[in-house]
């Protein structure tokens, strides 16, 4: 992202954002509520249009519409706080839907990939159930499998464990940790500090729509530079 600016009416939510996410890195985005973390994620796959600046994914600038945008969205997997699974489709169907429609892959290939992914997130035995029959942690793992089914180049996670009961947080973080270890490029908005320290290559701290600090997790947590970051850490640690 280079020089990205974004307003909602009079509200300046992203102020001149420069952010580079090298292939294979895991970037943890931290910051107080309302600082623009979700908006930043959403601009990366153009769920939100930007006012000015440029965003490139894998060296290609974001197209504004049409087929090129659909293809780019397929390269960017996104997992939200609310799992957003299709309630009237089975777990397996949820994972198969996008690759069938967007990637136009063959039936057998899609089927095999989807089952492998459910295996990978530890849900293979639930494939024929419906979302409501699964726990929140299981549903979120399905949502991760569904995003991975598109074979994305980067995965965005926006507070993926915030809506979960505490005992389910780790099963989702474990899946994310193994993804990170496998070399997936990830942008993760989370307040899970253990995960941030363990899996993060960098911490990007936002406040009021600006990137205030961009450093390695250890430095951020042990020696934050800005008053905003010190204040934030004082509240959550
Ligand atoms: P965060 O994820 O860090 O909590 P957000 O990116 O959700 O922050 O929001 C940043 C600011 O933009 C907040 O003040 C929020 O109220 C505002 N905002 C977010 N989405 C919209 C929208 N669709 N319309 C108007 N204001 C919005
Ligand atoms: Mg948010």
Helix content: 40-55%
Q: First CA to last CA: what distance?
A: 30 Å
Envelope shape: globular
Radius of gyration, CA atoms, in whole angstroms: 18 Å
Pfam family, one: ABC_tran
Subcellular location: Cell membrane
Membrane topology: Peripheral membrane protein
InterPro entries: AAA+_ATPase (IPR003593), ABC_ATPase_HisP-typ (IPR030679), ABC_transporter-like_ATP-bd (IPR003439), ABC_transporter-like_CS (IPR017871), MetN_ABC_transporter-like (IPR050086), P-loop_NTPase (IPR027417)
Describe this structure in words.
The mean pLDDT is 94. A six-stranded mixed beta sheet has the order 7-8-9-3-10-11, sandwiched between helices. Strands 2-1-4 form a three-stranded antiparallel beta sheet, with no helix packed on it. The chain has a two-stranded antiparallel sheet with strand order 5-6. The chain has 237 residues and is an alpha/beta fold. It has nine helices and eleven strands. The two termini are 30 Å apart. Bound molecules: adenosine-5'-diphosphate (ADP) and magnesium ion. Magnesium ion (MG) is lined by residues 37-38, 158.
């Amino acid at each position: 992202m280079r020089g990205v600016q974004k307003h909602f009416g009079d509200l300046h939510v992203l102020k001149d954002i420069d952010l580079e996410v090298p292939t294979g890195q895991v970037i943890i985005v931290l910051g107080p509520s309302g600082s623009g973390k979700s908006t930043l994620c959403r601009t990366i796959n153009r769920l939100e249009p930007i006012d000015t600046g440029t965003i490139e994914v894998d060296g290609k600038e974001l197209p504004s519409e049409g087929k090129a945008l659909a293809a780019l969205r397929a390269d960017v997997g996104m997992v939200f706080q609310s799992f957003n699974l299709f309630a009237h489709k089975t777990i397996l169907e949820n994972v198969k839907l996008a690759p069938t429609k967007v990637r136009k892959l063959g039936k057998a290939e899609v089927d095999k990939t989807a089952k492998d992914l459910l295996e990978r997130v530890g849900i293979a035995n639930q494939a024929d159930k419906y979302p409501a029959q699964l726990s929140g942690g299981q549903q979120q793992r399905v949502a991760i499998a569904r995003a991975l089914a598109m074979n994305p180049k980067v995965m965005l996670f926006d507070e993926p464990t915030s809506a979960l009961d505490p005992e389910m947080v780790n099963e989702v973080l474990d899946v994310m940790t193994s993804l990170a270890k496998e070399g997936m490029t990830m942008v993760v908005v989370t307040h899970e500090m253990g995960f941030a320290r363990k899996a993060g290559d960098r911490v990007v701290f936002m406040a009021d729509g600006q990137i205030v600090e961009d450093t390695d997790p250890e430095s951020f947590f042990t020696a934050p530079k800005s008053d905003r970051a010190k204040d934030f850490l004082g509240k959550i640690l």
